[in-house]
Design goal:
There is one protein chain. The longest helix has 20 residues. The protein has nine helices and 22 strands. Helix 2 runs parallel beside helix 4, helix 3 runs antiparallel to helix 4 and helix 6 packs antiparallel against helix 7. A hairpin with a 2-residue loop joins strand 16 and strand 17. It has three domains: about 80 residues, Phosphorylase Kinase, domain 1 (2-Layer Sandwich); about 270 residues, Orthogonal Bundle (Transferase(Phosphotransferase), domain 1), CATH 1.10.510; about 100 residues, Immunoglobulin-like (Sandwich). It is an alpha+beta fold.
């Protein structure tokens, strides 16, 4: 689609009534239809006429989606069909909300909501990998909310089979969220590429922009690509975000794929570890065995260095599909995101508000329209030349295809505190740090104690304590405690060290940490 082009009326499809256009991709247009039987709204992606290879691309996308569309974090594929002129189309679930990217740019997510969303999406991506495919274009703009406000991953138009090469071209990835090796047309599709994109998407949910976007500087494709290749990743730098999450993100976004977090499952498990550390409810990981479970060509680390991948206890954290309805109701309760409670203005889809189709951004936005660039079928020599001489690539962006008209994406107020729930003056004030941390050995354990802070901003029942135990030859252990003491196992042969910080239970704001060590011989 050329810059600024408008999608016309959708074709007549027997049994469906056209309502309006939703958006346009590299080889297809997406429209909202009403299906007569069963009666429901659906999104139909129709191959564009006179575009070489578009029917093959539609069939390929259908094959990839069919492997995982029953997963709760993947948009549903209802069927495929052909028009009288031979063009193929996909019938998909209609997600009647605006895409996540626009919402978090206006106001980033709270920690609890962002972790919950990305664990769910990572579960779906893990199943995609176990089915033999790589998505290759994971980003906040491709995460939608279904009619139950649950997050789903969309747009499998540039997915590829694991180990499949790019055929000498770079075909359809978003530079702001793609790993550096994906810039090379000679690379092959690997699950580690999606792991990077999951991590960069989480960073975006928390900060409001890509980790490689300069809010005041140069965001041309070349500038972004050079920042990606540099390997420098800023921390999230939010008071409510634990330092350990920065470690998780850096491990998942290692420039060297062989050192990257090894799988979407391992990434999700690390995020569960952050939830436990922050005293948040643990989001289940929904995976099951697949007929084909390909392995990355090079295994990466199981978890970030110094941060453990937690093993879910029985009935917690990981649940295979096919559990009872009662179990499902319990696990999915509270799923739903409502941004409007935080004062974010609802964003209509691209049909109701004119957008620049190369960026997917509303026309009135003040951000550089080069900030999100998707490279499509660009020869590899051109990419190399861009990096060397600083030329600017102009290419089409896959816009938000499955978004609905005028509906807001909302973080449920039961999931995140609002300003009305606490004294506004306290919302951004970190708590005081604990003091007097010490430990004494008692048998095979160490009893650690410290003094809770006397903090005028918070009552004692508003505070809790996060701790992290490091022992010789053991993986670090992180958890939280409502009281100023904890008894933990001791490991002989060196120092057992505990780090403790105060945390505001409702907001996640943290104090400075204190540390103490006990030698156990």
């Amino acid at each position: 689609m050329t810059r600024g082009a408008v999608v016309g009326t959708g074709p007549h499809i027997e049994g469906f009534r056209w309502i309006r256009a939703l958006g346009s991709g590299g080889f297809a247009d997406v429209h909202l239809y009403h299906q007569q039987v069963p009666s429901r709204d659906v999104a139909i992606k129709v191959a564009r006429p006179n575009v070489e290879g578009c029917n093959e691309a539609i069939r390929y996308e259908a094959d990839a989606m069919a492997r995982v569309s029953s997963h709760p974090a993947i948009v549903n594929l209802y069927g495929v069909g052909s028009l009288p002129d031979g063009r193929q189309f996909l019938i998909m679930e209609y997600c009647p909300v605006a895409n996540i990217a626009d919402q978090v740019r206006a106001r980033p997510m709270d920690l609890a909501s962002a972790l919950d969303m990305m664990i769910r999406i990572s579960s779906g991506v893990e199943m995609l990998h176990r089915s033999g495919y790589v998505h290759r274009d994971i980003k906040p703009g491709n995460i939608m909310l279904d009619s139950y406000k649950a997050p789903v991953l969309t747009d499998f138009g540039v997915s590829a089979r694991i180990g499949e090469g790019a055929g000498g071209s770079v075909d359809g990835f978003s530079v702001l969220w793609a790993p550096p090796e994906q810039h090379d047309g000679n690379s092959v599709a690997e699950p580690s590429q999606d792991v990077w994109a999951l991590a960069s998407s989480l960073w975006t949910l928390l900060v409001g922009r890509s980790p490689f976007e300069d809010p005041i500087g140069d965001n041309t494709t070349v500038a972004v690509a050079m920042r990606v290749r540099s390997g420098r990743l800023r921390g999230v730098a939010r008071a409510d975000v634990p330092e350990e999450l920065d470690e998780v993100l850096r491990a998942a976004m290692s420039v060297d794929p062989t050192r990257r977090t090894r799988s979407a499952l391992a990434f999700a498990q690390s995020l569960q570890g952050i939830q436990r550390l922050a005293g948040l409810p643990v989001t289940p990981i929904e995976v099951r065995d697949a007929p084909h479970m390909p392995r990355p060509s090079v295994p990466g680390p199981a978890s970030p260095a110094g941060f453990p991948v937690p093993v879910p206890s029985q009935g917690e954290g990981t649940r295979p599909r096919g559990a009872s309805a009662a179990q499902d109701a319990t696990i999915r309760s509270g799923v739903g995101f409502d941004f409007s409670e935080s004062g974010v203005v609802p964003i209509a889809d691209s049909w109701h508000h004119p957008r620049n189709l190369s960026t997917g951004r509303a026309a009135e936005t003040s951000f550089d329209d080069e900030e999100e660039r998707v490279v499509r079928r660009l020869p590899v020599p051109a990419i190399i030349a861009l990096v060397l001489v600083g030329a600017v690539v102009v290419a089409g962006l896959v816009v938000a295809m499955l978004t609905g008209g005028g509906h807001s994406v909302r973080i449920d107020p039961t999931e995140a505190p609002t300003a009305s729930q606490e004294d506004p003056s306290k919302l951004t004030v970190p708590p005081a740090a604990p003091t007097g941390l010490s430990g004494r050995v008692e048998g095979d354990s160490i009893v650690w104690t410290w003094t809770a802070p006397a903090d005028s901003n918070y009552t004692s029942d508003q505070l809790m304590f996060q701790y992290r135990l490091e022992r010789p030859g053991e993986a670090p252990l992180g958890a939280s405690s409502p009281v100023a003491s904890v008894t933990l196992p001791a490991t002989r042969g060196g120092d057992n060290c505990l780090t403790v910080r105060t945390v505001v239970a409702s907001s996640g704001l943290q104090s400075q940490s204190i540390n103490a060590c006990v030698a156990v011989n």
